[in-house]
């Protein structure tokens, strides 16, 4: 009897397996597919730093050249560039910028405003604020100048600035003489465009118009005695601090 009822029971189950959807769910299955959401739903906003006007102090002039082609040494591509010449009472600096960055130089109001061609491109938005920072730093350099102070912390650490006529690469070049506990003093030639002085035996003052070159030379001096965390000795640049550690216990 069980075997005779099995086929009919299977047909009954198959016939009753049809599922009907509720009326309020039918439009959801027949509607168009929803596109995938992006990770960020925010719109592309302009650079807050890049759209800020740069004030040009009296005595500082900006000269923007025509586009020219530069060969990229990494990709060997021909990249169009423009040169912005910033001149002031302390010197002159040249800044190379991409052609998609536009500079609106208002000579009457003595200010400059930067903009880009396409704000939707990530590369242009990144270079927008970066170019603004470089241009603002160059204007401050040729008008007021940049400085860096190095502090020598350690017993017997001393510094002095002297001239070495037999080693000079250009007339008037200075040399920083460091006594850092080695068997011989360390002599470092000051690059062109940077002025060095020692107001105290444990202080080195670097002055110049290009902040990038000043901090690069300060980093080279710092490498001779990097601050160590146990005794706190070393060469510190500007407001640099270090967290001291406890002594190693064997």
Topology:
Blueprint lengths: L1 H14 L10 H5 L23 E2 L5 E4 L3 E4 L6 E11 L2 E8 L2 E6 L4 E6 L5 H22 L2 E8 L4 E5 L12 E5 L6 E4 L4 E7 L2 E6 L2 H12 L11 E4 L13
Antiparallel strand pairs: 1-7, 2-4, 3-4, 4-5, 6-7, 8-13, 8-14, 9-10, 10-11, 12-13
Subcellular location: Mitochondrion
Keywords: Mitochondrion, Ribonucleoprotein, Ribosomal protein
Pfam families: Ribosomal_L6 (PF00347)
At CATH level 3, the topology of the largest domain is Outer Surface Protein A, domain 3
Strand content: 25-35%
Shape: flat
Give the terminus-to-terminus CA distance: 89 Å
Averaged pLDDT: 85
Indicate the percent of residues in helices.
10-25%
The beta-strand count equals: 14
Structural class: alpha+beta
Level-2 CATH architecture of the largest domain: Alpha-Beta Complex
CATH superfamily of the largest domain: Ribosomal protein L6
Radius of gyration: 33 Å
Order of helices and strands: HHEEEEEEEHEEEEEEHE
Low-confidence stretches: 1-6
What's the level 1 CATH class of the largest domain?
Alpha Beta
Largest sheet: 4 strands, antiparallel
User: With helices defined by DSSP (H or I, 4 residues minimum), what is the helix count?
Assistant: 4
In total, the number of domains comes to: 2
Domain Large ribosomal subunit protein uL6 alpha-beta: 153-235
GO biological process, one term: translation
Family: Belongs to the universal ribosomal protein uL6 family.
Keywords: Mitochondrion, Ribonucleoprotein, Ribosomal protein
């Amino acid at each position: 009897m069980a075997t005779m009822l099995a086929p009919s029971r299977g047909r009954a189950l198959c016939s009753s397996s049809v599922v009907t959807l509720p009326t309020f769910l039918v439009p959801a299955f027949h509607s168009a597919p929803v596109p995938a959401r992006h990770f960020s739903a925010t719109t592309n906003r302009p650079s807050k730093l890049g759209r800020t006007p740069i004030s040009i102090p009296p005595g500082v002039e900006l000269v923007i050249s025509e586009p020219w082609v530069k060969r990229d040494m990494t990709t060997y591509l021909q990249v169009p560039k423009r040169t912005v010449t910033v001149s002031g009472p302390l010197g002159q600096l040249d800044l190379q910028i991409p052609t998609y960055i536009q500079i609106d130089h208002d000579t009457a109001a003595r200010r400059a405003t930067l903009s880009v061609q396409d704000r939707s491109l990530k590369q242009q938005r990144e270079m927008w604020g970066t170019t603004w920072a470089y241009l603002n730093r160059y204007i401050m350099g040729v008008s007021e100048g940049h400085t860096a102070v190095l502090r020598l912390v350690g017993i017997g650490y001393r510094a002095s600035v002297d001239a070495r006529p037999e080693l000079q690469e250009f007339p008037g070049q200075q040399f920083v003489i460091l006594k850092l506990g080695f068997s011989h003093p360390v002599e470092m030639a000051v690059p062109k465009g940077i002025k060095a002085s020692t107001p105290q035996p444990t202080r080195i003052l670097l002055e110049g118009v290009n902040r990038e070159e000043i901090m690069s030379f300060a980093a080279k001096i710092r490498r001779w005695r990097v601050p160590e965390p146990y005794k706190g000795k070393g060469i510190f640049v500007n407001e640099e601090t270090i967290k001291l550690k406890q002594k190693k216990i064997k």
